[in-house]
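Researcher: Next entry: RET5 protein (Heliornis fulica).
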Amino acid sequence: MPPNLTGYYRFVSQENMDNYLRALDINVVLRKLVCLLKPDKEIIHTGHHMVIRTITSLRDYVMDFDLGVQFEEDLGPVDGRKCQTTVSWEGDQLVCEQLGEKRNRGWRHWLEGDQLHLRMTAEDEVCVQVFQKVK
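Model: Predicted structure:
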């Protein structure tokens, strides 16, 4: 049975965000700004439904979805694109596939103790973020 990811998580660290954003064709000014942000995550996980809020001082991004059901995701706040998104479990990892203009786009969330890990991919770039559960 997959873990319940419900909780509030504070940003700890990230690696390779600038190259990941470059792969999404984000302009240099916005890339520099995003690399300075320290986002928090709030996850509400109820059965087959999830809400994942990424919270920053600049803007929040909310994903509200049912597991295993494809939906059109509007990534306008991120990079101006729309994609067909499906989020499902692969073992203990929550896996998101985002089909659209960019090859190999998606992410994975998993827990290691009280830390939430996020691995984001686009094209050949990988960005890893770590968050600490606070409640």
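Model: Note for the record: Helices lie at 17-23, 28-36.
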